[in-house]
Amino acid sequence: MTSCEEAETEETVTCLHMTFYHPCQEDKMMFRCLNFHKREQVRAGEMAMFGRDSNICRYNLMDSRVSRIQFSLQFYRKLNNSEFCFEIKNMSKKTKLTVDHTELGYLNKIDLPWKCIICFGDYQILTEMQEGESMDYFETHLHLAQMPLLQERCLPSLQPVPESGIFPSLFLSQDKSPTEIDENESY
């Protein structure tokens, strides 16, 4: 047997990619304690806590308007299933947490969708889960966005044609003039 045949199969690790944005991030530097662009291992039994208290939270947000513990993430495996998930819990008594369009009050928790945006105050965090097999730990991989995340995810709403017959510039593509659409026609 060759050494390649004898080597153990490498186990893949679930990774939670998190992209952070705040409109004042360059001025206030609230993300200065986060380790961007480096994967971090977290033991499966640990809660990943986010907030401003560095004694409790693994991920510190340096902003007095952030709660000591803003929210927590718990890694778990579904019952009678091999699928791994994350559960998010709002730990702030003062600030509601929004996961996509679901609002969480204090101590409310839900399963984190495989891709979603978490919002509280002016903070926006895009999370994307990359599946793995390891039951011992998961990884986090943090990124910093230069543009608001909500604008990247939201599609423009369909608006009626104004009386002037001119579409908002958002709907115009290059080299095309506006066209009138009957209100009974679908897009």
3D architecture notes:
Its main location: cytoplasm. InterPro entries: FHA_dom, SMAD_FHA_dom_sf, TIFA. This is TRAF-interacting protein with FHA domain-containing protein A. The chain has 187 residues and is mostly beta strands. It has one domain: Sandwich (Tumour Suppressor Smad4), CATH 2.60.200.20. 7% of the residues lie in helices and 34% in strands. It contains three helices and twelve strands, in the order αβαβββββββββββα. It has helices spanning 3-6, 25-28, 149-153, and strands at 15-21, 39-43, 47-51, 59-60, 71-77, 84-90, 97-99, 102-104, 109-111, 115-120, 123-130, 137-144. The protein has a seven-stranded mixed β-sheet, with no helix packed on it. The protein has a five-stranded mixed β-sheet with strand order 4-3-5-6-9, with no helix packed on it. β7 and β8 (102-104) form a beta hairpin. The N and C termini lie far apart (63 Å).
